[in-house]
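Need tokens for this chain, all 379 residues.
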Amino acid sequence: MTRGELTKMIDLAKRLLAAGEPGVLSTLFSSNGSTYRPLGSMMVSGPATLTVGGISGGCLEQYVARTGRSLTQQKRAAMLSFDADPEHDDGSKPVLGCGGSIEVLVERLSECHVEFLQSFAQAMSADELSIATCIIAIRDGQVSKVSRTSPSPGTPGEGWGGGSRSQASSFDQPLIEPPPYPSPRVLEEGKSASPTFGRQRTLIHNIPPVTRLVIFGAGDDVQPLVEVAHRLDWHVTVVDRRSRLAIADRFPQADLVIGDDWGVAIERVKFTPNTAVVLMTHSLVDDIEIVPLIQDKPMFYTGSLGPEHRREWVIDGALQTTTLSESFIARFRGPIGLNLGDRTAMGIAVSITAEVLAELNHRNAASLSHPTPRARLSI
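Here are the structure tokens for all 379 residues:
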């Protein structure tokens, strides 16, 4: 679920409520085995086939929208279950094709849901991890209560994060009290979870910090990389000392374009532990000047475009005038990207983005059909 997708969900929810049309918020509440969408994925749906967002790869959306609309006319919330067992297929609902099983919470859309989605969107743009919860109580096999907490900063072992509570489904019963805090592993692994505490079931939305991509260089080959990163919902900054190239009109999908001397420009860039840095200046002199200025900045990925020997030239050149830490030298990559064999500007952009994604998600970037282990480089 991207920020762009969430924005469209909010817009649809507002339109439905303003028009007095019944709408449904559907949430992927629990999963077991292989599923297409991650836990916590959401969808807003209205009349007919009007849906935004998703809780599967497209095989369940229309059924969930139609069934959820029917169920929530009589009650405020219900739980739908789906599995991949063809023997249980009675033709009344879809069977999953990915081999897993899921549960989807459907709720009658309300203003409180819009507020929740808006706060969720804000959390997705933040530079720190946030936690939100959806807690339900089951009575006589039916969803009897639903309570949500708005997203707020969360740190492993520090409780729920102090989020304000809202009763999105407006049940008569009092709000459900938060259950004991789950294992810190939920946050450390960066995934959402759905633990059960007695008669209460909880969906913990783990909302990771926004991924920042900082590109040094504003040549034409940077444009495809900005485009791909933007589609991934990353915050993209383009920096170049050549102000004639570092123009917002040339990079309409970038969040920030800076044209200034390297030292001045770098002070305007926000670096976080979720920042990836790539050097695409095509100038050895520029890269040698940039490297010492960024070596102490927080980042999880950094490297320079070009062949392996160019990386050595940059490091050796910088060491002629300054000191570089051994840890920075060890993690400074060159060449950057995966070996995809495509040397077009777009192919290189995909290659770089794929490697950054693998590092971000603690993956080894191997083929899923022929995986090979590789430990993530410690930053």
